[in-house]
Every structure is written in structure tokens, then in C-alpha cells.
Amino acid sequence: MRTKEALAKILCLFCICLLFIVKSENEINTAYDTGNKDKTTFAEAKAVRYLLYDVNPGEGFNLRRDVYMRVANLVKFLNEDEPWVLVLPPWGRLYHWQRDVEQIKIPWKTFFDLDSLRQHIPVIEFEDYLKVRGEPVIDEVYYLQGFKGGWTHWEEKLNITECLDSRSGGFRQDDDGRWRHWFFGYEEVYAKKFACLSYMGHAGFIKPFLMHNTTGRSVYIPQAEEMLHDRYGHKGYWEARRSMVFAKHLRDIGDEFRAKHLTSTDQEDNTVLEDWTKMRRKHGEAKGGPYIAIHLRRRDYLWARKDELPSLKGAAKHVKKLLKKYDLLKVYVATDAPKEEYEEFKSYFKKAEIYRYEPTEEVFNKYKDGGIAIIDQWIAAHARYFTGSHVSTFSFRIQEEREILGFDPEMTFNRMCGDKDQDCEQPTKWTIIYD
């Protein structure tokens, strides 16, 4: 009798293990599904490889989001032949993040919905990559740079060459032959191999090099901004962009502010966010909240682009015309202006209500400068009418968000002119493409 009971237990345990194996394989297949149709072909299994990247330290938050799209579509391209996972570079130490608090090792989940990113390509946080590897190691580093002497005509080419930067981008070899670097603030991380790669080309151009000239399980590409979009503004670009859904906790804060101060809700404004893979909005479908939103860039732009920006008084004059034109009384201001400049801007209005998002200490400590910037963009993206600052990536990202939500391009692609040029050229209308 005991023998039969023991046998039954063994069979039960075997069934459980079998179910676990099947479930695990299904989860792995789902994790690495890049959206391609099942072609029902079988080949020798290939080990998963990891692509890491970074951007020039001087580049800001919103340009980095643009570089993500380039690298994401490269990973999508790589996955057509072998499994690659994109390792998301932790955020920190950006020029515009000037609050007196350390902001490093910030994971992407603080700012973005990782499940949405994974509906486009397989991604993993850097900390999770270190856990998977079991040691703080990156196998190969290829530091992207231009070609010596510059170039006279553009052509796609790459070549491992001498490092043009005498400091080799801050990479140094220790006494044990390991390559050391800042590595996002993780001092224990090291690389086994380092080389400088002179590069001129689109992101997809590096695919053959990664597949046939690298052998490490992980490859790291600093200065990934050297790689251009394969097809800027086309279907692949917008798929990557649409997948970059803001984290729900940040959207919730922005939505609460809209409802409380701007009489704006998704139901009333027709801006309900859906699964990005199924969401296809027509231009003009989104109404937006009853307010004007502006991006009033100040600080470094005051000297870098002073003739292309309005004065505070000039910006107020322009906004008053918009309020009258659209019969509105509320204005939302996304700005990097110090408090005294913002107060001066407000002083030029007698009837209109002027709003700006000011985070509590608790919110800032949780979500840092990057999170506050996203809340700003989310609120601005839901306005009835938006006008931005000239060639600002902050304004670009808001315009893209409004395209995804389905606003009329005429209510989105606008900029404020300098005081001396009231008929300045307006932004190019980079409208959304689905097919």
C-alpha cells in the first residue's frame, strides 16, 4: 500500500514539474516576442545576447528618449535573426537635473511602463542584467566616435580605429587588465574588452558587426547618438515611440492636477489612453482640456537662442491672443524658469488663470527631476492648444504625445516667436504613421 502511495506521489510530482517547464518556456517565448508572426520554422537554439548603450553625458533627458528609439529598433532588427535583449541604461547626472540632490541609478520603471516597452522589444533593467550575469561584467565595449579628419561626403561606414579622445571616453584599464568606467554609478562593474569604433551610419548598419564581429554575451555601445534613425518619422519610429508609455504613477499625478485645476478629464477631453498596439486615433479626435499649454524654455536658451525666444512680456502677449482666439481662460506653463520669472509672467495677466505644476517634497524624492518633467509633459499634452519653444526636444516629445492621443496638428505643431520676428517659421508637422 505504501508502495502505491509513493508511486502516486512521484507521478504527481512529475506532472507538476512538466507543467512548470511548459509554463516557463511559454513565458520565455512571450518575453522575447517582438511582434513578428509565427513562421513555424525551427533551428538550432541560440543563446540570448544583451545590448547595452549610453548617450553622451551632455545630452538631456528628451534627446536620450530619442536615442532609445534608435537602439530599440536596432534590437528589433537583430531579433529577426537571433535573440537580443536591450539593457536599459539607468538615469542620472543630467545637465538639466540641477536640484541639490544625488540622482543616479534611477531605473526606467520610475519613468516608463516597462510592459509597454516589452510589447515592442525585449528589455531589461541594468540591475536585473547584473543579476542574470551573476557578476558585474560587460564582455565587450565599442566606443562610438567620428572619423579622424571629419568627412567630406556622407556614407555608411565603420572601422575599429585609434581613440580620437585622448581620455578614451573615460575608460581606463586597471592592473588586472579589466576596463573600468563610471558605468551608471556602479563602480564594481568592469568590461573585459574595449575598442573605439569610428562610425557613420544608421542604427541598423551596425547589425552585421554585432552579429559577426562580436562574440561576447553582452556588448556595450557608449555614445549611441552617433547612430541615426533608420527611417525617421516612419512606421518603425512611431512603433518605438508609441511603446514609450509614461509610468502610470506619473500619469495619475498629472491627471489629478488636470482635474483639480484645469477642468480636464480624459472622458471629457476624449483622450483616454488605450493599449498602444491597438490604439489608432484620427487627427482631431482628441478635444483636449479647456486650457492653453505652453512650453516656455528659459535658462540656457536665453543665451543660446535668445533671438528665437520671446521675452516674458512677449510670451504673455502671444498667449493672450490664443486665449481670445479659442475663448479660453486657463493657461498651463511648462517651464524651467526660476520662480521670480514665472511670477513676472503671471503678472501680465489680469483675468486668465495661470498654472504650473510644483511637486511636493515627497513626489520629488520619489520621482526626481525626470519624473517632474514627465508630469509637465503629460499635462501639456492634454491641452486644447499647445505651443512650444524653438527646436526644443521637450516640445518635440509633447507634440508626439499629442499625435498619439489624436489631436489636430494645427493645435499641436506651434512655437512662440521671438519679439523681433512675429512671423517666424513654425515646426514641421511630423504626423503619426501606423502602416
TrEMBL record:
One GO CC annotation: Golgi apparatus
Keywords noted in UniProt: Carbohydrate metabolism, Disulfide bond, Endoplasmic reticulum, Fucose metabolism, Glycoprotein, Glycosyltransferase, Golgi apparatus, Signal, Transferase
One MF annotation (Gene Ontology) recorded for this entry: peptide-O-fucosyltransferase activity
Pathway of action: Protein modification; protein glycosylation
InterPro entries the UniProt entry points to: GDP-Fuc_O-FucTrfase (IPR019378), OFUT2-like (IPR045130)
GO biological process, one term: fucose metabolic process
Keyword Disulfide bond: yes
EC number: 2.4.1.221
Highest taxon in the source lineage: Eukaryota
Reactions performed catalytically: L-threonyl-[protein] + GDP-beta-L-fucose = 3-O-(alpha-L-fucosyl)-L-threonyl-[protein] + GDP + H(+); L-seryl-[protein] + GDP-beta-L-fucose = 3-O-(alpha-L-fucosyl)-L-seryl-[protein] + GDP + H(+)
Signal peptide region: 1-26
Entry protein name: GDP-fucose protein O-fucosyltransferase 2
Organism: Pinctada imbricata
Lineage: Eukaryota, Metazoa, Spiralia, Lophotrochozoa, Mollusca
